[in-house]
Write a structure and sequence with these properties.
single chain; about 260 residues; alpha/beta; Metallo-beta-lactamase, Chain A; 3 domains; 13 strands; binds zinc ion
Length: about 260
């Protein structure tokens, strides 16, 4: 609930209303968020033209549908702070209809069985394995987002095997004393979290303005510090986008 994380929310919600294409907004956050938004709305005389539902979260699974699940985990900061892990579910490999047709497998119920990876005996006596006709399983991607925390087990847990870990790095390594006092992370803490959790990529964010250009330490130095520990590190910047690549796994048998 620190200001640097919520001051933009009212503006964003107001802009969504002006854009006019919003049916409903669901916001997930810590206790106090609903009261904060209600007060902002009351004193700024801003009323949303669409329903806004605030869900107060606690550690555990906070959202799940057919495509994704989201897990909330406790971090270690001066106020209650949570990190999040978004997990995309694995998707079955694509059934190759063309190949099935080429093999002269008659369409019908058999297709469904083959799609599920079952082995089917056709009327003409041939035995076909479903796995031969399905592409590789698409492994779901995992993203962890941890901000406002000193190095903690909760962050490592959220980031376990993640494709991308977005982690705060408020301070350079030499300012670790300040990081411990204020319960923020250094570049090395962020990198160690990524390393301990066997994540694939680290994107650092939430930098102190003390590393602005012209100072003795600059953002590019922070990047070098982190890369010395975890080479696959990048720095976030405003409006950055990053498409998380999909990892592929070849399925040799069983369900496809
Ligand atoms: Zn912050």
């Amino acid at each position: 609930m620190h200001g640097d994380h919520i001051f933009g929310l009212m503006g964003l919600l107001a802009s969504c209303g002006l854009a006019g294409n919003v049916d409903r907004v669901d916001i997930y956050g810590p206790a106090g968020l609903n009261e904060y938004l209600q007060a902002c709305s009351r004193y700024s005389h801003t009323h949303f033209s669409y329903p806004v539902k605030v869900h107060t979260v606690r550690p555990g699974v906070i959202y799940e549908d057919e495509e994704f699940s989201v897990v909330c985990g406790q971090l270690n900061h001066r106020v209650t702070a949570y990190g999040y892990r978004v997990v995309e579910k694995d998707r079955v490999g694509r059934f190759d209809v063309e190949k099935a047709k080429a093999l002269e497998i008659p369409p019908g119920r058999v297709y469904g069985q083959l799609k599920r990876g079952e082995t089917v005996t056709l009327n003409d006596g041939r035995t076909i394995q479903g796995s031969e006709l399905c592409g590789p399983t698409e492994i779901g991607r995992k993203i962890a987002y941890c901000t406002d925390t000193v190095f903690c087990d909760g962050a490592v847990e959220l980031a376990q095997d993640a494709d991308v870990l977005i982690h705060e790095a408020t301070f350079a390594h030499q300012d670790a004393d300040m990081a411990f006092q204020r319960l923020h992370s250094t570049t090395t803490m962020a990198a160690q979290t990524a390393l301990a959790a066997s994540t694939h990529r680290l994107i650092m964010t939430h930098f102190s303005p003390r590393y602005a250009p012209g100072n003795s330490l600059e953002l590019k130095d922070l990047l070098l510090e982190a890369r010395a520990i975890f080479p696959n590190t990048d720095m976030a910047y405003d409006f950055m986008t990053y498409e998380v690549p999909r990892r592929r796994e070849v399925v040799l048998s069983g369900k496809c």
